[in-house]
């Protein structure tokens, strides 16, 4: 017989809610984002400072190829996804591809607009 130990006391007091971008149930960071979305948004700000400053304005298009590398998180895409064709102002002159979640965080970082969902969708204590 193997004794079992409950570690539920470690999670006491931590509230899990739904991330407003990826809709995962997680402990939220500032702006009602999960830790993964916060990391991606920080990467966008550091990798694309021109876009965040508003000096890079290119309309998004739809890429239908699978296997493109997302420029925000580095993971390959599987489905159709938004991309920005190469701009003559960019040094490396290659298209920028995003997952839908990463694209939403890109738009947030570029425009500064944040959408706040209804707070009543909180799950409660986890």
Report on this model:
Helix content is 24%, strand content 13%. The protein has three helices and six strands. The chain has helices spanning 35-47, 49-53, 100-111, and strands spanning 15-18, 25-26, 61-63, 81-84, 96-97, 124-125. The chain is elongated and about 65 Å long. Residues 118-126 have low confidence and may be disordered.
Protein traits:
6 strands; 126 residues; three-stranded antiparallel beta sheet; alpha+beta
Largest sheet: 3 strands, antiparallel
Structural class of the secondary elements? alpha+beta
Terminal CA distance: 29 Å
Domains, number: 1
Low-confidence blocks of residues = 118-126
Percent strand equals 5-15%
Strand order of the largest sheet: 2-1-6
- Overall mean pLDDT stands at 78
Sequence of secondary-structure elements: EEHHEEEHE
Shape: elongated
Total E-strand runs: 6
Rounded to an integer in angstroms, the radius of gyration calculated over CA atoms is 18 Å
Number of helices: 3
| Helical percentage | 10-25%
Secondary-structure map:
Layout: E1 15-18, E2 25-26, H1 35-47, H2 49-53, E3 61-63, E4 81-84, E5 96-97, H3 100-111, E6 124-125
Antiparallel strand pairs: 1-2, 1-6, 3-4, 4-5
